[in-house]
Specification:
Elements: H1 2-10, E1 14-18, E2 21-25, E3 35-39, E4 43-47, E5 53-59, E6 65-70, E7 75-81, H2 85-95
Antiparallel strand pairs: 1-4, 2-3, 4-5, 5-6, 6-7
Length: about 100
Amino acid sequence: MAVVQRLLKAKEVHTLAVHTIALKLGQAREPWPPAQQTRRTPELVAHSPEGWEVATVTVGTRSNCYVVSLPSVGVTAQLVNANQPHAVVDLILAALPKEAA
């Protein structure tokens, strides 16, 4: 995803890498109960110049594809081969709102 983020930065698209860790604390008799840690798939979120979320990119479960969601154009899960980061960038650029001339 770092490749996609660099390509988008070169096109002046604002992105944010989101890494989420869920921590579930249990109730136990020990003074420090063990916690269950769940790591979620990192996401790359692209924003329009106005700050609206335009796209979310994640890596597929076997890391052989990007999963691109474009809520602004109604696409929930577009799969793109992992060796085609430029195709991901093209999808995101096409989903950006067009500036008024």
